[in-house]
Structures are given as structure tokens and as C-alpha cells.
């Protein structure tokens, strides 16, 4: 089991909301897009601008500095496979958000992972 960090209550992040968190020395933005929680590094990979205030269009986040679009589900910039956000797997366990700050596995790499609310009692949930 990978080491996970508590990122607060799932109730703190209603659909459509975002929250900037400082976790283990990292600045991470959490987004609730239609019930799916996404976590990304707050720094744009292009020039390091804060993404917390970026414009959202569905699950596409635009960097406020230069308008570069990033898909929150994959971290990828459409049309530019070489430039992508650092994403973190998110798990919901007993009503709490847990992040894995380790590099995601190949099966989860680039995807926001979500633990079903129905599986809250599982001690080692797998990303979906």
C-alpha cells in the first residue's frame, strides 16, 4: 500500500468547487468536477504560474498566465503530449480525501483516481 496523506473531508469540496491545499510542502489544488475529485500540482508546467485561479470549462483548466488548457482527468494538454500537469491519485475513505503524493502507477498515471463512496470501509481501496 502506498503512503497516503489526508487532504480533508469530502464534504469540504462540493461539486464545482476547488480548494488550494498545502500538503507536505507542496501546493496542490483539488477540484470537484461533477462528483469526481481531481488533484493537481498548483504550478503550471509551462512557466510555474499558480493554477488555483485558472478558468474551468468542464474538466479543462486554463492556466491564468498564458491560457494553456489542461485536462484535469489526464493532466495532458490537448495537442501537446509533452506538456502535462502533475496529477495525484485521490481516494475517498470514510468520508475523507486521501492523496498519494508518490508517482502514480502506470495503471493510474495521468488519471484522477476515485474511490467509490460505497467502498468506504475498504482498508486498501484501489483507484478506479
TrEMBL record:
Molecular function (GO) terms for this protein are: 2 iron, 2 sulfur cluster binding; metal ion binding
Q: Which SUPFAM superfamilies match?
A: ISP domain (SSF50022)
**Could you name the domain of life of the organism this protein comes from?**
Bacteria
Q: Which UniProt keywords apply?
A: 2Fe-2S, Iron, Iron-sulfur, Metal-binding
Record-annotated Rieske domain positions: 5-99
Any Pfam family hit: Rieske
User: Which PANTHER family would you find in this protein's record?
Assistant: 3-PHENYLPROPIONATE_CINNAMIC ACID DIOXYGENASE FERREDOXIN SUBUNIT, FERREDOXIN-RELATED
List the protein's name.
Rieske (2Fe-2S) domain protein
Q: Which organism is it from?
A: Paraburkholderia piptadeniae
